[in-house]
Amino acid sequence: MTFPLYAQKVGLVLSGGGAKGLAHIGTLKALEENNIPIDYITGTSMGGIVGAMYAAGYSPLQIEKVALSPEFQDWVSGRFKSDFSYFFQKQPINPSIITAKLSLDTSLRISLRPHLVNDIPLNFALLELFSQASAISKDNFDNLFVPYRCMVSDVLSQTSITVKKGSLAEAVRATMTVPLIYRPIKLDGKYVFDGGLYNNFPADVMKKEFNPDMIIGANVSSKTYNEYPKNRDERLMNRLMLFMFLSKSDSTLIGDNGIYIQPNLKEYNSTNFNPVEALIKQGYDATMANMDEIKKKTNRRVSTNELAKRRDAFNQKKPDLIFSNVTVIGVNTEQKKYIERLFKRDQKTFDLTDIKRGYYKLVADETFETIYPKISYNAISDSYNFEILAQPTKSLKIDFGGNISTRPISNVFLGTQYNYLNRRSYTFGLNLYSGRFYESVQMTGRIDFPSRLPLFLAADVTYNHFNYYKTSSIFIENPHPTYIEQSDRKINLNIGMPLNRNTRIIVGTAFVNNNDRYSPNNTFAVGDELEKTILNGSRSTVSFEQYTFNRKQYANRGRHFLFSANYFTGRESYTPGNIVGISGSTIAAKVPVTKKFRQWVNIKLSDENYFLRINKYTLGYQAEAVFSNQPLFSNYYSTLLAAPAFYPLQDSKSIFLENFRATTYLAGGLKNVYSLKRNLDLRVEGYVFIPHREFEKIGFQDVKHRSPFTKWHYAGTAGLVYHTPLGPISFSYNIYDNPIKRNGVLLHLGYLIYNKRSLE
User: Fold this and answer.
1) What is the average pLDDT across 624-633?
2) Separation of alpha carbons 14 and 138, rounded Å
3) Contacts (Cβ under 8 Å, ≥6 apart) of 302
């Protein structure tokens, strides 16, 4: 006589808990290694993500590989690498630290962005991970590799919702929407948030939906403390936001026949996703500690080969990510045309690379406040449809920034930008800088044309003012001040086009007015009048630029390559002051006002590249070459002030360096960056500057060229840089090879970034 075998069913419940939920990957690894079956999964928040990946046909090792990837850190932090940005659409970098995005409606009401983390990379990543599984399951979670449920919260009705059908990517996105961290999404017409608000440990849902014979519950979140903290605990305060949003996890819900797993995660932070390996190990160790009991209560086993075959069979059914259509909703007809032109139309179908390229072109456009992607599968055409929910707004962006420095070069920055979209994209901006050393006003306007070959037309009106004398110490008299004051104005017109996602070509012309005032012998007394040189003219430019830096200052990844050809023409007007030089008993004669026509060509090639990365060490280089037939101006200082300059160190633009200026030169150096810990870098950099024919002062203020390649000069820096949400904090020792040794310690918070000068 034979007896039927009882097929025991096992359900796995995975709690929410932020970054601590990565420990669930270790639980999955331990269960599979010991042939424990997983027949059903319910999960919340990070438990919902890990559970969904397993249910979608990913093995624990594949899930672990995703979690350990650099891309995962970008998803959870809201960063996305420049490989998928669109440099063509980026505005010039500025020293902004804090950005506020405001929406102005017809009543001129202002609203602030209600979330902290940019969800752009996360939304697309979830589509990549889950769209194929959704396709073969026909959006029914019972048809996944493992039947699955996740929890979301409707805060308006204050109810917990069990998601069992629809887009798997959207369900996962919804279950992890922590209020104020990620923006909410609509699911079945309801705005929903993180499932942990009302059900952080969905063991009750496991019983109701699947009623397994046994439940294994893994909880990584605790809502109670054995002893209430008596003193102020900064780490607890930092986690308070996430802590207060999670409901209590009830371990009794698994039943008497269940197994409750609680990894030891007291030393880990719910918002810190960096210790991935350690978190996975904690989950693995906790599960293995309960393995004997799990095996006693589980009489059924699933062999590794059997599971692998079943998983492979499921994954082989997944349709390739080939797209036949791109649809846009949430916009008017003209705006829809603008968006559709951003996607490749050379062929009837799109692959994932085409879709990703178009998506990141779109998100690079600051005209949109909301860009939410969706993917649906059409079984008839055996292809996918990429759907974009876009919500353009007449938006106003306000930037605050600048720098605070131990040298008197501190300044504040205020920028505003207004975006408007119709058939074309319009951007208007106003930037203001104010400080002792540097002041600037810049108005900008730009029109983007999303044609097959995208183009932009841009214009800016810029005023810059640099006062090198005021870089002297505020309270301590500088024995060697620099009596130079420069003002430049320009009206600039550009047309640009992309070569690829990180490279663009710009053709432009500018009308310039430079007004330089200086002392011919670097002295000044009461009643003295400075010399003055005015240059009125124009500049025509063709430039080729590639930019992939990961940071706008103190980068340690990426490349910035620039090639530009410039033609200058204009009139130099020189007005002498009343400062005279004395050589023996002879007083230099005062030169009358002179006007001379000037024209020259300037070709510049610069390349900054971080090309070698070994563990925590990064090696980069900066190379620059300039060729110009720029003539000598009326005197020594007017020639220096108009000549191209090499700026090797972070504060180089705030120091007038006579030895780092020449019409033609070669320059370069090495950048050594060592990551001491997360966000803290040690930087050691050294450079040389080799002018072709250095300027030489003759007599009181005449000028001539030295013999070719007679001198070279050096510069170097060593210091620490800590990258904070408010910009870098840098503490460094800088040295320049200059007649008056410009060396010393510099400490600054923020960005030392200025508007381009008229001749740059």
Assistant:
1) 96
2) 24
3) 35, 36, 37
Quote the strand ranges of 343-423, DSSP E. Answer: 368-378, 383-392, 395-405, 411-421
Q: Quick one: CA torsion of 21, 263, 195, 237, rounded to 10 degrees? A: -80
Q: Is 419 helix (H, G, I), strand (E, B) or coil?
A: strand
Mean pLDDT computed over 707-730: 92
CB atoms within 10 A of CB 41: 28
Do 496 and 455 form a contact (C-beta atoms < 8 A)?
yes
Model pTM?
0.73
723 and 554 in contact (C-beta within 8 Å)?
yes
pLDDT tens across 662-699, in order?
A: 999 999 999 999 999 888 999 999 999 999 999 999 98
Q: What is the 3-state secondary structure (H, E, C) of 535-559?
A: EEEEEEEEEEEEECCCCCCCCCCEE
d(CA 201, CA 474): 61
| pLDDT(256) > 80 | no
What does DSSP assign to residue 155?
T
Are the CB atoms for 555 and 547 separated by under 8 Å?
no
* Helix 352-364 × helix 120-137 angle, to 10°: 150
Strand blocks (E) in 256-349: 259-261, 323-329
Tokens 């960063």 belong to 79
| pLDDT for residue 390 | 82
Candidates 742, 731, 730, 655; CA nearest to 470 is 655
Q: How far apart are CA 247 and CA 249, in angstroms?
A: 6
**Which is nearest to 517 in space by CA: 556, 471, 486?**
486
Strands 185-187 and 159-163, sheet pairing: unpaired
Integer Cα distance of 428 and 458 in angstroms: 10
Residue 32: closest CA among 56, 52, 4, 61: 61
Contact present, 665 and 645 (Cβ < 8 Å): no
CA dist 389 → 328, 330, 332 (Å): 6, 6, 12
- Report DSSP letters for 249-270, one per residue: P-GGGG-TT-EEE----TTS-T
Q: Which amino acid is at 282?
A: Q
Written in H, E and C, the secondary structure of 103-121 is ECCCCCCCCCCCCCCCCHH
Residue pair 21/49 in contact (Cβ under 8 Å)? The answer is: yes
CB 422, CB 334: distance < 8 Å: yes
Cα-to-chain-centroid distance, residue 24: 29
- Least Cα distance to 245 among 174, 150, 156, 153 occurs for 153
User: How far, in Å, CA of 360 to CA of 373, rounded?
Assistant: 11
In the DSSP assignment, the letter for residue 358 is: H
- Residue pair 687/669 in contact by the 8 Å Cβ criterion: yes
Q: How many CB atoms lie within 10 A of CB 282?
A: 22
382: left (phi over 0), alpha (psi -120 to 50) or beta: left
Tell me the mean pLDDT in the region 595-616: 95
